[in-house]
Design goal:
The protein is α+β, with helices and mostly antiparallel strands. Helices cover 28% and strands 33% of the residues. It contains seven helices and twelve strands.
Length: 266
Amino acid sequence: ACEALHLVGWSQKTSEMHQQRGIKKISYSSFSSTYSSFQRQPFSKKNIAHRIGSCQLQRNANGRGPLRANSISLPISAESSAKESLLAAVVTTERGIFGMKKAERVELAELVEAVEAVNPLPNPTEHLEQVVGNWRLIYTTVQILGSRRTKLGLRNLIKLGDFIQTIDLEKSQAVNKVAFIVPGNVYGALTIEASFEIVSPSRVSIAYQNSSLVPNQLQALFQKNFDLLLSIFNPEGWLELTYVDEDMRIGRDDKGNIFVLEKILE
């Protein structure tokens, strides 16, 4: 039997867990209108088995990384169900940055792999026009915990806002902007500019260019720990694009982190 049928078990397990929690329908005020309101639907094993036929799921050449589909044909409903399951699960995670229970993190990892397995663009760097524009981070395995969170004042003093990434294909540049809210409802942001270069059909290398922090109040608060702040959000290294479609993108970096982003529609 095709290994892709494991997706069925993931979806059914997730559906059962959310039914036990009483979650049936979820609205996203900050999400794109495509996902503003949806009903969770599990995969149909019969439907998937019929459409997949003889397929193979492969990992990277080194035997690690997410499962990838090789010559796979799935119904649109299967891909939508995988995405909806993931979107429903990340709603209450605060993007995962400030920690999660182990069971929740394991569930999210499985849901991410389920979406990656139905990636409609197996060679995403050949279609980088798909990633041009603005993207909002909705889940990551990057964590700010313990003393790091205390040093940065992210417990009670400073609130973490949206993480927005803007991709400019002509400049081969990614601009990451992390928003903060300081006492007195003063809004500020850390902006990091980085260049990217294609190194494989699914991977780009990323080089740090420069960064800025505004306004002055935010600079004063982060002055002693700016290097720590930058080390957390600096994207330098490489990024494997494991899922790309018109409104969702998933990537895995050289540090083992996962990033799930949604397209910000104008």
